[in-house]
Design a protein that fits this description.
This protein has three domains: 224 residues, 3-Layer(bba) Sandwich (FAD/NAD(P)-binding domain), CATH 3.50.50.60; 111 residues, 3-Layer(bba) Sandwich (FAD/NAD(P)-binding domain), CATH 3.50.50; 113 residues, Enolase-like, domain 1, CATH 3.30.390.30. The protein contains 13 helices and 21 strands. The chain has a five-stranded mixed beta barrel with strand order 1-2-3-4-5. A five-stranded parallel beta sheet has the order 7-14-8-9-10. It has a five-stranded antiparallel beta sheet with strand order 17-18-21-20-19, sandwiched between helices. Helix 1 runs parallel beside helix 8, helix 3 packs antiparallel against helix 4 and helix 3 runs parallel beside helix 6. One of its GO terms (cellular component) is cytoplasm. Belongs to the class-I pyridine nucleotide-disulfide oxidoreductase family. One of its GO terms (biological process) is 2-oxoglutarate metabolic process.
């Protein structure tokens, strides 16, 4: 007789493992199926985020930033560095250790919350007795049944047509995290989050990096003023970013990769690189899920079709995270996972897409929440803008990092905060205040009146709020 569960989650990434834990907290007999393996074949829950995405990339970004500071920034602090070297193997080893710590942490949380874990690939078999029969294809295949199923199978890197990933020369985010030595010349196709972050890592370590972007505008999703500042800073750092290009072909050879493309002026160009990172987006992962066995509906892009509450077309089957509509962000997946578990329990789980923060962990960091200035203009919304530079912030001066600014956008009549955009030191942390403020429908005046510690980077947030009414105190 197969094991029976109230809730089974397929996928152990940020959306999946969080959904499983919350369901267990709510009293459901819960299981989670995940097939990620570590280098020894053991379980490695956490999905793309933990294994080849958010966590390892931040580890490498931190290591490479330390290296760049040692080589270029420490002298200003009176610290002399001689014969500076980087041990790539040790750096990658540290990254692997950080990943394993997170894998083990999730397994511990499963035990703590009494979530049954199955190591293998989960798939639908059939609808059965008001629930669903599922197969776990692992070391030992088994069948389980569930009253509710939450699909959280994530996404895969999109391949460039005619240039499949070999993870040696043509790299996805996975291979980009495992380059064994600093390439002399590195190409990146796509100037999104992954492209900029991975390009920054290897540029800091000594690679000559060229980023090719098909779109004519840089960071089109960000506020225009932030994107303009970022482009200027990245160019000064040494990132060569070409916009409006059209890739003609990619030739993968023994000595590297040749990318032929047409530039923005219509001229034919060839970029010869040692390694090529392709970061042109991600596609929903339903490989091996066997949705047709139960009639689970997918859209034209292969994503699972859900409504606003993450319900699929099938009773008691839900889906969250990258495998459904909406931004492919780990924290969005987590919030959906919690909301679905609570909805199964008859509660009113809530996810506000308007207050989901976006972060790019380059240096300077870039973060925003809410609408951009160009979106407000396009929507015909009357607004006020306030901006404050880190150049005028005492803590930023002490840190030696005064790049960028904080920008507030508020409704012209009500003063409600409509968007906050930050480029500068620790933007990923500073944006949380804006998220809280917007979730509670605060006004710019509310932030302007709150006491912020001095000296702190957060004072730039207060000053930007003051700037909405043209009354900054320190600029």
């Amino acid at each position: 007789m197969s094991k029976q569960f109230d809730v089974v989650v397929i996928g152990g990434g940020p959306g999946g493992y969080i959904a499983a834990i919350r369901a267990a907290q709510l009293g459901f007999n819960t299981a989670c199926i995940d097939e990620w393996k570590n280098d020894k074949g053991g379980p490695a829950p956490g999905g793309t985020c933990t294994n080849v995405g958010c966590i390892p990339s931040k580890a490498l970004l931190q290591s490479s930033e330390h290296f760049e500071h040692a080589g270029h920034g420490f002298a200003d602090h009176g610290i002399a560095m001689n014969d500076l070297k980087i041990d790539i193997a040790k750096m990658v080893g540290r990254k692997d250790t950080v990943v394993k710590q997170n894998n083990d942490g999730i397994l511990y949380l499963f035990k703590k919350n009494k979530v049954t874990f199955f190591h293998g690939r989960g798939s639908f078999v059939a609808a059965k007795d008001g629930g669903y029969e599922l197969k776990v294809a692992g070391a030992a295949e088994e069948t389980i049944t569930a009253k509710h199923v939450i699909v959280a199978t994530g996404s895969n890197a999109r391949q460039l047509p005619g240039a499949p990933f070999d993870e040696t020369n043509i790299l996805s985010n996975d291979g980009a995290l495992r380059i064994p030595a600093v390439p002399k010349k590195l190409g990146v196709i796509g100037s999104g989050v992954i492209g900029l972050e991975m390009g920054s890592v290897w540029r800091r370590l000594g690679a000559d990096v060229t980023i090719l972007e098909a779109l004519p505008a840089f960071l089109g999703a960000a506020d225009e003023s932030v994107a303009k500042e970022a482009a200027k800073v990245f160019k000064k750092q040494g990132l060569n970013i070409e916009l409006g290009v059209k890739i003609s072909s990619v030739e993968n050879g023994k000595d590297g990769v040749a990318v032929k493309y047409t530039d923005a002026k219509g001229a034919e160009q060839t970029l010869a690189v040692d390694k090529l990172i392709v970061s042109i987006g991600r596609v929903a992962n339903t490989i091996g899920l066997n949705p047709e066995a139960v009639g689970l509906k997918l859209d034209e892009r292969g994503a699972i079709v859900v409504d606003d509450e993450c319900k699929t077309n099938l009773p008691n089957v839900w889906a969250v995270g990258d495998v459904v509509r909406g931004p492919m962000l780990a924290h969005k997946a987590e919030e959906e996972g919690v909301a679905v578990a609570e909805r199964i329990a008859g509660q009113h789980g809530h996810v506000n897409f308007n207050t989901i923060p976006w972060v790019i962990y380059t240096s300077p960091e870039i973060a925003w929440v809410g609408r951009t200035e160009q979106q407000l203009k396009a929507d015909g919304v009357a607004y006020k803008a306030g901006q404050f530079p880190f150049l005028a912030n005492g803590r930023a001066r002490a840190l030696g990092d005064t790049t960028g600014f904080v920008k507030f956008l508020a409704d012209a009549k009500t003063d409600e905060i409509l968007g906050v955009h930050i480029i500068g030191p620790m933007a990923s942390e500073l944006i949380s205040e804006a998220v809280v403020a917007m979730e509670f429908k605060a006004s710019a005046e509310d932030i302007a009146r709150i006491c912020h510690a001095h000296p702190s980077l957060s004072e730039a947030t207060k000053e930007a709020a003051l700037a909405v009414d043209k009354r900054t105190l320190n600029f």
